[in-house]
Amino acid sequence: MKLAVQNAAEIAEETTQHYSSVIRETMGEPISEARAMATSLSSVFQNQKEQVFSREQINSLLQDWLRSNPNLFAAYVGFEPNAFDGRDTDFANTEGHDSTGRFVPYWYRDSSGELIVEPLNSYTTEDYYQVPLKTKREVIVEPYVYSAGGQEMLMTSLVVPVLGASGQSIGIIGVDVLISYFSDVFHAVTLYDSGYLNLFSEQGIILATKNGALEGKKLAEVGDIDPDMLVR
Fold first, then answer.
1. How far is CA 87 from CA 13, 81, 172, 206, in A?
2. Are the CB atoms for 160 and 138 separated by under 8 Å?
3. I need a labelling partner for 7 at 20 to 30 A (CA). Which of 55, 116, 156, 219 fits?
4. For residues 225 and 214, is the Cβ–Cβ distance under 8 A?
5. pLDDT tens profile 211-220
6. d(CA 49, CA 194)
7. What percent of the chain lies above the pLDDT cut of 70?
8. Which domains does the chain have, with CATH numbers?
9. Taking the model in full, what pTM does it have?
């Protein structure tokens, strides 16, 4: 009996480690690519006197990024007023821009998989934009609800700041991963006949559990999940 319990614990540990690796790979590659793209853009703004990239070119890069990363829901950049090309007024209320004309395209997949663009929303207040901009550090944002295409979705953002000539933050580049992606992965796992895995964020938000109705809530708000089953 003792051996059986030990074997079960070892299998559970191996399974946990495997899916932890899945999460790291899902998050690791996009943040590395965002970091590389932010470094390239920062280098351009820091060393070039003339504009090298156009808005159209950046939009094409974001679309290509999504096409080559099917696990991503969205890819985007956001720039401070006139920080990209000094032409915000020319682009006010055009496709992918809001009334300010700031370069803030948010490319995402709709329900059919088609790539759609709309301007970022709430960037003047939300952490996904404000935290990397103010700290000049890349961040993985705690899961939050974001509205795209008229639908609200629980997601996490991986965001890197873009720096200007004097080292100041002039914008961000990031990607979004839907929490439902992790839910689908974890819901497919069965340990023995009835065991299952739970996934929580660092601050205790439930990302994946057997009871899907609890996903998106904080662990402190519910009482039927054993914290010892935490997988990060």
1. 55, 9, 18, 43
2. yes
3. 219
4. yes
5. 666 766 777 7
6. 62
7. 66
8. 22-179 (3.30.450.20)
9. 0.75
In degrees, to the nearest 5, what angle opens at C-alpha 179 toward C-alphas 115 and 16?
130
Read off the pLDDT of residues 73-88 as tens digits, 9 standing for 90 and up.
Answer: 999 999 999 999 999 9
Look up tokens 């663009």; give the residue: 117
Amino acid at 33: E
pLDDT digits (tens, 9 = 90+) for 156-190: 888 999 998 888 999 999 999 887 776 666 655 55
Position of tokens 């439930």? 206
